[in-house]
Amino acid sequence: MRISDFSARKTRNQYRTFITVAVLGGLVLTACGSSTETPAPVAEPTPPPPIEPLPEHATFDMPKALLGRRLYHDTRLSGDGTLSCASCHNVAAGGAEPRRVSTGIHGQQGPINSPTVLNSGLNFVQFWDGRAATLEEQAAGPVANPIEMGADWAVVVATLQASPNDVQEFTAIYPDGITQANVTNAIAEYERSLQTPARFDAFLRGDMSALSAQEQRGWATFTEVGCTTCHRGQNIGGGMYQRMGLVQNYFELRGTPLTDVDHGRFNVSHDEADRHRFKVPTLRNVALTAPYFHDGSQEDLASAVRVMGRVQLNRELTDAQVADIVAFLGSLTGTLPEHALMPVAADPNAPVVAPEAAAPATPTATPTATPTPAPTPATPAQ
Fold first, then answer.
1. Residue 377 has pLDDT above 50, yes or no
2. What CATH number was assigned to the domain covering residues 199-330?
3. pTM for this one?
């Protein structure tokens, strides 16, 4: 549980306790005839803000993350040795596919736009339809998907086990060595480490100079028109499912035939109430992750904002409102942690040695977080 969560719960519990005591006390006084005065109304506690800042540094296991970084960029995880996780989720370019759909093994085209991997550890589920409950489950899927990386996990594990460097590195971290579970755990730990604090986080902490006047107007508009109903929490999204076309039919507006992936969460739950519902995407680094929506139908951010205003909020946003919101969304472009990118000239199959400062802490009754290095600016797509 985060400290902020604990504090909020503690405040709510204290408030409930206070109300209970006040009510019981009032009943006792009335019964005894000690007072006939009406008690003063008790003010409601201030609700928490809809969006919370990211921590300045993520908490994760650095040796696992560095191993996961190498595996994330390792083409041996694909069936023909041509693709890696980074092929569709380029960390240096916003962590998402810069095309409408991804190209998989043998040039096959995927059915859906690839969401960003940055800050994905803050999502409540993974994939647009939420079919993976954890990052480990998500990491396992594309490797074995015949139109994505098209590999066989048994072959992948055997290939890694045949490498002395891989065996040495895995056994230094995982007592049972190279297994599918350990490969996906390392990749997931790397992905959990990819948090990107932005100028907006500094603004939320009280630095008013972190945003321009237009960005601040955009934040105010974003809140006033109702965007924070769904895009909330530390990840500014990623915390709930929502129907695509809540108040107007998005798919009629799009004007193209429905596809299987347009059914969203329904494909997993088979519950009619879930038809066209998707995990609300994070808006962090959204200026780097065009095209937009699960179908990649919107090429630019301004168009995506207009469509969302219409089909989710029943609002025709003005040009000024759209421009201000787009400016605000630009303030969500964050910085990558220093370890996020592979060393330029490194052999992707060479063992990665963690820096001394990032060595795992000795286990204690109260584990301590492993600090991350200072962040460096993310590189936008070229």
1. no
2. 1.10.760.10
3. 0.79
Give the three-class secondary structure for 195. Answer: coil
Find tokens 């919107």 and name the residue. 298
62-196+338-360+369-377 fold: Cytochrome Bc1 Complex; Chain D, domain 2 (1.10.760)
- Determine whether 250 is exposed, middle or buried from the number of CB atoms within 10 Å of its CB (0-12, 13-18, 19+): buried
Domains 62-196+338-360+369-377 and 199-330 share a fold: yes
Average pLDDT, the chain: 84
Q: At 109, list the tokens.
A: 């085209």
Tokens of residue 303, six digits: 């168009």
Say how many C-beta atoms besides its own lie within 10 A of residue 117's C-beta.
25
The owner of tokens 């009335």 is: 30
Query: Hey, how many other C-beta atoms are within 10 angstroms of the C-beta on 1?
Result: 6
Which residue from 92, 88, 100 is spatially nearest to 290, judged by alpha carbons? Answer: 100
Give the per-residue SS3 of 31-53: HHCCCCCCCCCCCCCCCCCCCCC
Q: Cα–Cα distances in Å, from 126 out to 9, 167, 184, 288, 298? A: 27, 29, 14, 20, 22
Active-site residues: which are they? Answer: 148
Q: Of 358, 360, 298, 336, nearest to 93 (Cα)?
A: 336
- Look at residue 368 and tell me whether its pLDDT is greater than 60: no
- Quote the pLDDT of residue 56: 84
Residues ≥6 apart with Cβ < 8 Å to 41:
none
Whether pLDDT at 25 is above 80: no
Instruction: Determine which helix (DSSP H) or strand (DSSP E) holds 241, and give its type and residue range.
Output: strand 241-243
DSSP 294: T
Token representation of residue 321? 């409102």
Tell me how far apart the alpha carbons of residues 8 and 299 are, in angstroms, rounded to a whole number: 40
Per-residue pLDDT, averaged over 88-113, amounts to 95
Contact 31, 133 (CB under 8 A): no
Domain limits, the chain:
1-48, 62-196+338-360+369-377, 199-330
